[in-house]
Amino acid sequence: MERSAFTTFAPTHDSIKGIVKNGPELDILRTGTVLISVSVKGRPDHTIKLLNVSYCPNARDNLMSESQMDQKGMEITKRNGRITIKKPNGETIMEGQLQGNLYKINSIIAPHLGMMLPSQLTQSPILTSGMPNSDMLA
């Protein structure tokens, strides 16, 4: 995840285990907020705010914590190579597909205040230790 993806960015010193079994821990240098634009079939794209996102410059992938979503009451369904994430009221907020051993959410980093052109956006997996904002759950 690039530094430019963050809308807030505070220093921290911590570490987190990576997804590779027996792999090295990843240094967390900062935490902050990231906005992502999410595509869900049958509805307009929408923006989700991820809080407490860990900035790990040596991380190979950008991951979202499934356990944190579960603790917020979200329903996560994985079946036939697809993932669906729903708010407690049943509204689908994220979808994706299995690629290798990870589910890739249909999302891109949202532009900051119109500062980026659509051609500057890139498709990327979801974010390290990011937790969707509770406003999204309302």
Compact overview of the structure:
With about 140 residues, the protein is mainly beta. Helix content is about 5%, strand content about 45%. It is globular.
| CA radius of gyration | 15 Å
Instruction: Enumerate how many helices there are, as a single number.
Output: 1
Distance between the termini: 28 Å
Run of helices and strands: EEEHEEEEEE
- What is the mean pLDDT? 80
Number of beta-strand segments: 9
Structural class: mainly beta
Low-confidence stretches: 113-131, 133-138
Q: Outline the biggest β-sheet.
A: 5 strands, antiparallel
Commentary on this structure:
- By secondary structure, this protein is mainly beta.
- It has one domain.
- Helix content is 4%, strand content 46%.
- The chain contains 1 helix and 9 strands, in the order βββαββββββ.
- Strands 1, 2, 3, 8 and 9 form a 5-stranded antiparallel β-sheet that branches. Strands 4-5-6-7 form a 4-stranded antiparallel β-sheet.
- Strand 5 and strand 6 form a beta hairpin.
- The longest helix is centred in the middle third of the chain and has 6 residues.
- The C terminus is likely disordered.
